[in-house]
Structures are given as C-alpha cells and as structure tokens.
Design a protein that fits this description.
With 62 residues, this protein is mostly helical. 39% of the residues lie in helices and 6% in strands. Strand 1 and strand 2 form a beta hairpin. The chain is extended and about 60 Å long.
Amino acid sequence: MRGVERRAVSVYAPPWLRPVLPLMVSAVARRSLSALPSEELERTTGVLGAVAPVPPVTPPQT
C-alpha cells in the first residue's frame, strides 16, 4: 500500500498474493461498475481519462 501511495516505480507482492490479487480487483471492479448508471458507462472515457477524438483520415489525392 505504501508503494502505491508513494507512486513507486515498482511494487512487489508476496508470491501467495499474485494469483489472488487479479481476482479481487476484477470482483471489486465488476461490483462498482454494475452500480453505475448506464449514462455514466456510455461516456467516452479511457483508463487514464477522456479519449481525444481521432481526426478523420483522408486518402491521398492522385
């Protein structure tokens, strides 16, 4: 927990926790996402924040 709070470059977990941690994270995420209203889930946000719109690509003129 201290490593995450200090934004450490690496955070190590005991070997017994490595298989359990992904299961715990997915269970908590599933529960919290199911509690959100559908309007909130439809927003265009990425993992690190809002997703910038991608400009359309025009083919080269020949």
